[in-house]
Amino acid sequence: MAQKYGGQHSPGAANAPTGLRTKKASRAGGRVNFLFFPPLILILKAFTSEPIVMATYLAALGLLLLAAWLTREGLFAQEAFESRKVARRPAIPRKLFGAILTGAGLSIAGLAGHGPVEAIIFGVLGLGLHVAAFGFDPMKSKGMGDVDEFQNGRVVRAIEEAEAHLAAMQKSIASLNDRDLVSRVERFQSTARHMFRVIEADPRDLTAVRKYLSVYLDAARQASTKFADLYARNHNADARKNYETLLEDLEQSFGSRTQKMLADDHVDLDIEIDVLRARLEREGVKLASD
After folding, report:
1. What 8-state DSSP symbol labels residue 26?
2. 142 forms bridges with which residues in the sheet?
3. I need a surface site. Which of 21, 86, 210, 284 has the fewest CB within 10 A?
4. What pLDDT score was predicted for residue 43?
């Protein structure tokens, strides 16, 4: 189905975020997606071989597909790590495991089709080429030395929780297959992530805006889920308008709070919180207790 083109100078783009908040294309595509296709050749090899060799080829296929998946997830994790000023290293080195499994898969395939010498050569080449193409996972946390470890830990945990709420919002709205709504949610996400970056730069700001990262993003997630369920059933125009208005209010509130953090101005924070709370409660979202 054709989709409406949208750009910087298109109708409705006046409020599109710019600069820091411009969405970047994910690097987890292209080369890494290509990894899923060559192993499929092993299916043909497997089903034209005797049972033991067939099982060996299928084992190699499984390892190579698992390696491709781990590599792609590793790239996603690295992108998230690199986008933040304060971040823990990924708990699981997915790209490293992907490289090892690639070598193991190619080694098993070489053993099934050729012999032990070829198996060793294929394994070493697979491991080396994978590392050359995709590199290693981040091995050290970053941005956690300027402020005490406890404070940085609080920031990391709060932002990880906030990112989970944003991801849930995106998932709910993406299920509607509506490009305009997806783009609108992405604009709000960009505004929220701008706040995250400011907090990472100065973790002392976390206390003042913790409700934004937990209570209000959780409420936005709830509202997105409720709206997606309703809109999927009847495409109610009023519900859509109310949801878009809610996103506008959230974006303005998050943006305003971020600018005041940058100006080191904590005046009227309680008033802003009360206004945002009232707006969310009008949408029928039950807020967690403070």
Report:
1. P
2. 87
3. 284
4. 92
For the range 179-183, what are the long-range contacts, defined as Cβ-Cβ under 8 Å and sequence gap of 24 or more?
179/3, 179/4, 179/6, 180/4, 180/6, 180/12, 181/240, 181/243, 181/244, 183/6
**Measured distance CA(112)–CA(57) in Å, rounded:** 7
Q: How far apart are CA 198 and CA 116, in angstroms?
A: 55
State the Cα angle at 84 between 24 and 215, rounded to 5°: 100
Following DSSP, what letter does each residue of 122-164 receive, concatenated?
A: HHHHHHHHHHHHH-PPP-S-BS-SSS-HHHHHHHHHHHHHHHH
Residue ranges of the chain with per-residue pLDDT less than 50: 1-23, 147, 265-268, 290
Radius of gyration of the chain measured on its C-alpha atoms: 24
Among 45, 72, 48, smallest CA distance to 59 is for 45
What pLDDT is recorded for position 217? 93
Distance, in Å, from the CA atom of 206 to the CA atom of 157, rounded to the nearest integer, reads 11
Q: DSSP of 219-257, one letter per residue? A: HHHHHHHHHHHHHHHH--HHHHHHHHHHHHHHHHHHHHH
Exposed (0-12), middle (13-18) or buried (19+): which is 288, by Cβ within 10 Å? Answer: exposed
